[in-house]
Amino acid sequence: MRAQKNYGRLPNQATEKRAKGSVPIKPEMRGAKMRRRDDNELEKLAWQLRGELGLANVYRLDGMTLLTRLKATFKGFNYRRVHDGSLGSAEAQYDSAERCISITESTLGSLSDFEVDHSRGARALFTLAHEVSHFVLKHDGRLNRAFERAAYEKASAKYRALETDADSFAACLLAPMRLIDPLWPVETIQRKFGISRRAAEIRLGEKQREQRFLEGKKRPLPAGVREFLREMKQKGYDIQADLDGNE
Ligand SMILES: [Zn+2]
Predict the structure, then answer these.
(1) Helix (H) or strand (E) holding 82
(2) All structural domains of the chain with their residue ranges
């Protein structure tokens, strides 16, 4: 198998949709052991997915567009509208055996509620993005998204890990780091990406941390740290840092 610089793999794709010059994404080996991805990988995979769907630079994703493009791009993927209450207390569900997202009528309806009620729209969009994440991350099983999770679900560490990863990936997909300006107020991020206030706060915090990290790399080390490292160097430790920088 050819080595591929890839951030994990997206699910099997319908090949005829491939844009000229783009890197083919190989089908995942069946039965391959699932590996959890770190935040950075999730971010990159989400960005890759947006690209594949032709939604790279769209701020607020439209739920229906997301579903129809997924269906057009990924072989076997499907979605269906179901009556409210037919998923129990869940608003949506992903079934890996069918590669299908079931979504309740009221949740589908709320996807277009942004102008009327931002939080209702944001909640529906996040629910959808969460189920999409289960598909993209190739989680196994029939995974519900309910307002209140059952106690037995909370008890399972494996289930919690899947849910946490799906939430993280959903946030990356809805509000990619690359599209966030660290100087924007929380309200702007909320509105631009169609996410909740809490999600916007978290994404902004992450963006600002990333920004500080990038700026920090260019900044010389503080005098105290330089002094410490100089001493370590004199003692024979292999110190690579620039110890002559000015503050
Ligand atoms: Zn879930």
Answers:
(1) strand 78-82
(2) 1-19+34-179, 181-247
Across 49-67, b (16+ Cβ under 10 Å) vs e yields bbebbebeeeebbbbeebb
Q: Is 118 exposed, middle or buried (0-12, 13-18, 19+ CB in 10 A)?
A: middle
Q: Which of 104, 70, 69 is nearest to 85 (CA)?
A: 104
Quote the strand ranges of 121-242, DSSP E: 142-146
Over range 24-36, report the average pLDDT: 44
- Residues flanking ion ligand 1, Cβ below 5 Å: 143, 145, 163, 166
* Residues 203, 59 contacting (CB under 8 angstroms): no
On whether the pTM is more than 0.70, the answer is: yes
Q: Which of 13-17, 25-29, 62-66, 238-242 has the highest mean pLDDT?
A: 62-66
Q: How far is the CA of 82 from the centre of ligand 1 (A)?
A: 17
Dihedral (Cα; 78, 83, 89, 91), 10-degree rounding: 40
Asked whether residue 198 carries a pLDDT value surpassing 80, the answer given is yes
